[in-house]
Amino acid sequence: MENLHDKRKVYEKSQLIESEIKQNPIEQFRDWFLDANESPEVSEANAMAVSTVEEDGCPRTRMVLLKAYTHEGFIFYTNYNSRKGKAIENNHKACLHFFWPNLERQIIIKADLEKVAENLSDGYFHSRPKGSQLGALVSPQSQPIPNREFLEKKLKDLENEYENVEVPRPEHWGGYLAKPYEIEFWQGRPNRLHDRIIYTLEGLDWKISRLAP
Ligand SMILES: Cc1cc2nc3c(=O)[nH]c(=O)nc-3n(C[C@H](O)[C@H](O)[C@H](O)COP(=O)(O)O)c2cc1C
């Protein structure tokens, strides 16, 4: 057995205290997201883990990129026929997770997922580089495929087909809006006495509590 018992880090970069936080968690998210996005030590601040629950009752997690956030929630784009898309059809609940190690911060968001309006998906799809647009057409995301050549051949064919033509957004590709009802902010602190502030939606109001680390 290789044990990692002595592998630990002292968290001491910052603090999260009630007198300094925002009353609205999306505004608090914004403060922390901007810190992460501006930090040269964080390479993809908008990368987040999204867990969905599959039919066997087990959660499954994968990374996606946050592409927008508003007072309504958090938006990411994917293939609606993918494994996550199928899980979401059966259970629209998700957990979103951000971890920015260099800032010693994590955010855990419980949310209800819904598809975004088609015009929003169209707008984002067409803003992507053409290669990424074609990639969405090429890939039957989460399906078994015979080999890598299958993808490369399909890409070549589509590159020819759409050489001077706008690539249409496939119907099965688009965004999800994750509407939060609970958001926890975690700031690492010395001696494992970390700060945990949790916002819970009660009716239209966000209730703020501190959790023990
Ligand atoms: C940093 C990172 C960002 C990713 N962003 C996305 C994304 O925005 N949308 C997406 O569909 N897949 C994205 N992926 C790939 C997913 O993790 C995953 O492999 C894919 O969506 C299929 O997941 P599923 O089979 O669980 O549906 C990303 C992977 C990584 C590592």
UniProtKB/TrEMBL annotation:
It comes from the Bacteria. Homodimer. It holds the Pfam family PNPOx_N. Substrate binds at residues 8-11, 67, 124, 128, 132, 192-194. Its cofactor is FMN. Belongs to the pyridoxamine 5'-phosphate oxidase family. Residues 42-158 form the Pyridoxamine 5'-phosphate oxidase N-terminal domain. Catalyzes the oxidation of either pyridoxine 5'-phosphate (PNP) or pyridoxamine 5'-phosphate (PMP) into pyridoxal 5'-phosphate (PLP). Pathway: Cofactor metabolism; pyridoxal 5'-phosphate salvage; pyridoxal 5'-phosphate from pyridoxamine 5'-phosphate: step 1/1; Cofactor metabolism; pyridoxal 5'-phosphate salvage; pyridoxal 5'-phosphate from pyridoxine 5'-phosphate: step 1/1. The keyword Oxidoreductase applies. Keywords: Flavoprotein, FMN, Oxidoreductase, Pyridoxine biosynthesis. This is Pyridoxine/pyridoxamine 5'-phosphate oxidase. GO terms for molecular function: FMN binding; pyridoxamine phosphate oxidase activity. PROSITE patterns: PYRIDOX_OXIDASE. Residues 173-213 form the Pyridoxine 5'-phosphate oxidase dimerisation C-terminal domain. Its EC number is 1.4.3.5. FMN binds at residues 62-67, 77-78, 83-84, 106, 141-142, 186, 196. GO terms for biological process: pyridoxine biosynthetic process. Binds 1 FMN per subunit. The lineage of its organism: Bacteria, Pseudomonadati, Bacteroidota, Flavobacteriia, Flavobacteriales. The keyword Lipid biosynthesis does not apply. It catalyses: pyridoxamine 5'-phosphate + O2 + H2O = pyridoxal 5'-phosphate + H2O2 + NH4(+); pyridoxine 5'-phosphate + O2 = pyridoxal 5'-phosphate + H2O2. InterPro entries: Pyridox_Oxase, Pyridox_Oxase_CS, Pyridox_Oxase_N, Pyridoxamine_oxidase_dimer_C, Split_barrel_FMN-bd.
